[in-house]
């Protein structure tokens, strides 16, 4: 989902007229639904092949496929489009206004790169036969930290520049997504 958000946000900044006039209205919903469906399918397949009816070879191939898809396709696409968006916004002579949504996306991607990508690389290399000092407990902690940071990012970005101390979580989320 981070990859598709990065692509869509980049296209909306680089080609705003096309996005407003020619982009199908339901495109985001359809792509999100397809991605959720693919994720559900791969996870169900992994559950069946690795737990219910263990097939070590099939499980191994599926996990390598998921790791390669994540590391070799989604992550590079996300990086290219995010970097393009970042450079376009920061180097623009028009001084485009960077909103809260831009900040949320960039922080989410940054923490994804810090906590999730190194772990994915280690797991992929482990499945390919390269042995590193990898512990499932460390992977679980990193995954929890990565997932737990998103609400914190939304809250902090939503409450940024607000002088009041008392601030509701709902208002913070609303401000973070108002762009």
Automatic annotation (TrEMBL):
What's any one GO cellular component for it? plasma membrane
Domain G-protein coupled receptors family 1 profile spans what residues?
1-154
The superkingdom of the source organism is Eukaryota
User: Which compartments does it reside in?
Assistant: Membrane
Q: What keywords are annotated for this sequence in UniProt?
A: G-protein coupled receptor, Membrane, Receptor, Transducer, Transmembrane, Transmembrane helix
Bilayer topology term = Multi-pass membrane protein
Q: Which InterPro entries match?
A: GPCR_Rhodpsn_7TM, MRGPCRFAMILY
GO MF annotation: an example: G protein-coupled receptor activity
Membrane-spanning intervals of the chain: 26-49, 61-89, 101-125, 137-157
Q: Chief location of this protein?
A: membrane
Instruction: Extract the PANTHER family matched here.
Output: G-PROTEIN COUPLED RECEPTORS FAMILY 1 PROFILE DOMAIN-CONTAINING PROTEIN-RELATED, MAS-RELATED G-PROTEIN COUPLED RECEPTOR
Q: What is this protein called?
A: Proto-oncogene Mas
Organism for this UniProt entry:
Charadrius vociferus
Lineage at the top is: Eukaryota, Metazoa, Chordata, Craniata, Vertebrata
């Amino acid at each position: 989902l981070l990859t598709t958000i990065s692509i869509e946000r980049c296209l909306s900044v680089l080609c705003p007229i096309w996005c407003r006039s020619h982009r199908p209205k339901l495109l985001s919903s359809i792509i999100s639904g397809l991605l959720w469906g693919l994720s559900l399918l791969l996870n169900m397949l992994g559950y069946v092949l690795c737990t219910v009816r263990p097939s070590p070879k099939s499980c191994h191939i599926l996990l390598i496929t998921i790791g390669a898809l994540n590391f070799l396709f989604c992550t590079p696409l996300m990086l290219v489009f995010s970097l393009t968006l970042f450079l376009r916004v920061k180097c623009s002579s028009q001084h485009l206004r960077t909103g809260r949504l831009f900040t949320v996306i960039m922080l989410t991607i940054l923490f994804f790169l810090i906590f999730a990508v190194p772990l994915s690389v280690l797991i992929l290399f482990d499945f390919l036969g390269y042995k590193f000092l990898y512990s499932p407990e460390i992977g679980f902690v990193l995954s929890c930290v990565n997932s737990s940071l998103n609400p914190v990012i939304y809250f902090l970005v939503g409450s940024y520049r607000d002088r009041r101390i008392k601030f509701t979580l709902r208002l913070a989320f609303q401000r973070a997504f108002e762009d």
